[in-house]
Write the structure tokens for this entry.
Amino acid sequence: MAVFETSFPVRYYETDLMGVVHHSNYIRYFENARSQMLVELGFPIQECEKQLGIFVPIVSVECHFRHPARMGDVLTATAEVTRPPLAKMVIHQTVRNQRGELCAEGEVVLGFIDSKTFRPVRCPEAVCRIFEEHNND
């Protein structure tokens, strides 16, 4: 499966007094890349909710910090789905600085919930098809 990426500068409010990115921001960076991935695949998260009646909550987040990102860095966040989603979607994610140094890496697991019953469901067929089609490109 392809790796989706998005780049952005570190913003002042994301850093601490030492000019280092606060650890909580990496989860936001992961989300930024995931959202961009779904947009590029042609199925933004809000469309899944609106068209299919499926919520896509985060089940778990794992993040390992490798190298501090700092004020002035331009970061690239990536998202990659390595296997077709079934009852959940596992997304491998990274954040690197402009020198290619790995700042953080992790995994985010998304579930699928029926918006009326709030019960877990399998990945909608339309979403599975999108990932299958992209995987065959």
Summary: The chain has three helices and seven strands. The chain has one domain: 4-135.
